[in-house]
Design a protein that fits this description.
The protein contains 8 helices and no strands. By secondary structure, it is mostly helical.
Length: 186
Amino acid sequence: MARAALSPDAVVDIALRVVDEEGPEALTLSAVAGRAGVATPSLYKHVRNLAELRVLVSGRVMGELTEVASEAVLGRSGDEALRALMDGWRAYAGRHPHRYSALIQAPRPETAETGNRLVGIMVAALRAYGLEGSAAIHAVRCLRAAMHGFAVLEAAGAFQLAEDLDESHALLIHMVVSGLRTAHER
């Protein structure tokens, strides 16, 4: 890539290629500069440092995940929306395991808008279960923990037993849906 073509978005694009091909631990300013065909100091015109680049990468990944979630629930409600959301989340993490692991889990001011949109999508998907306010937030946390936990364990190859992972994921969805149907009874 020519120096003139660099921009913050272009630097993030290159960083995502590094992450996709080599994993998040391989993301360095030197690696990005090498792929861009520039000296590392040239990147400082577009990103302050590696920490900022990691936040920008995470923001892009969160945006992609938010789009997946939005598309999954669009036109669906209740159990169907939740199944589509959980399947979409798993599929994204499976297609992009290194990107998914580059996602910064703690809230950041730079990604707050996208994070709020993602939470809003999940809250909307939970409305059919009669969950509102703090009950909806607790359910979102549980849902996120279930989706994230399965995705991380699957990407790490942690499920070594012979049973089919699709069946395990279907059972997880069933357990979450069943739990949400009775959440108001607790």
